[in-house]
User: Fold this.
Amino acid sequence: MSGEKLVGIVLVSHSAEVAASVAELARGLSGTGTSVPVAPAGGTEGGGLGTSSELIAAAAASVDRGAGVAMLTDLGSSVLTVKALLAEGDELPAGTRLVDAPFVEGAVAAVVTASTGADLDAVEAAATEAYSYRKV
Assistant:
């Protein structure tokens, strides 16, 4: 399926370990379908807790396959950092979108949906829908 346009997913967390673990979980639960480009962007360049616009921009560039990039974030400053990058307009690939979704459940829904070849609107809808997933 090389050359196929796929939605890329970036998982922005304050922790490199959290971002990488959620990416691994989402990939693992997406089954054996199309391999979705997923990149974690967690922590700072020095390995500490926080967010890094440079790591986020690099992750977005690494997953861009021409169908847009869905960015899911964990907490406060990760959201603000992605919003600032989007406002700048030239740091992220065209079609990059901040998705308002729960971090873990939304990431799984986004990756599973993207693995079907769905477009960015469908990936965003699936991730956002994860807010309504009830556990009890």
